[in-house]
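Preliminary data (for renewal application), adenosine monophosphate complex.
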Amino acid sequence: MLSLCSLCSLWQVTFLMDKIIVLIGAPGAGKGTQARLLTERRGILQISTGDMFRAMRSGDTPLAREVQAVMASGALVSDDLTFKVVQERTSQPDAAGTYILDGYPRTLVQAEQLEELAEDQEKEIVAVEVDVPREDLLKRLTGRRTCPVCGEIYNVYSKPPKVDGRCDFHPDAELEHRKDDQEATVAARLATYDELTAPLLDYYRKTDRLKAVDGTGDLQAIYSRIEKAIS
Ligand code: AMP
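Predicted structure:
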C-alpha cells in the first residue's frame, strides 16, 4: 500500500501482511453464515473444519467411521488429525492470501499449532469472537436446516425456506437437520465449547489479537461489525 509518511512527508510503500481470520463462537453463533458473507462480498476464502469433517465422514473407511462417531457424540476430532487437515487445506494455492478459519482452532493445543502454521505462512492471526447469548444459540441450533447440495443454511424460526423443507436454490433437495444439531448433541457441543474452546478467548485477548463482536440482531448488522473488526 502506498501512503504518505506524516513525519518525513515522503511517499512510502507499506507491506500489509496477509491475515488468518479466526472466527470464534459457540456452535450456532453464526460463524459459518458470516464467513460465507465475507467470501461472497470480499472474496476472502472460508475454510471450515466442520464442513471438511462432514465431507470426510461420508465414505466407508475406518477414518470416516471414526469422524462420524466423534461428530455424533458432540466431541472434538483429535487435535493432530484436525491440524493435518487444516495444514493440507491451507497449503493449496487458493489459500495463499488472507483466509478465514471457521471452527478452528477449538482447543489451546490447536491454537498453538496454528501459531506455527501462521509463522510458516508469514501471516498474522486476528481472532474475532462472535458473541451470542445461550438461549438464542439453542433456538438457532435446533432450528437449523442445511441444503445438502449447496450448503445454504436456513432456520425454521428466523430464516425459513420459501417452501417448507426445500432449498430455495435446489427445490429437489430436501433440507437436512444435521444429526449434530439435534438436542442431546447440541447440549454436548455447548459443553465441549465451554470447556475447551472458550479459554481461547483469553488466549487471544492476552496477546491483544481478539476483537469481540455482538453476534445478535440482523445478519447485515453483524456482518458490518465483523467487517469493521477485521479491517
Ligand atoms: P461445526 O460445524 O464447526 O460446529 O463442526 C462440527 C463438528 O466437527 C464438531 O462438533 C467437531 O466434532 C468437528 N470439528 C469441527 N472443527 C473442529 C476442530 N477445530 N477440532 C476438532 N473437531 C472439530
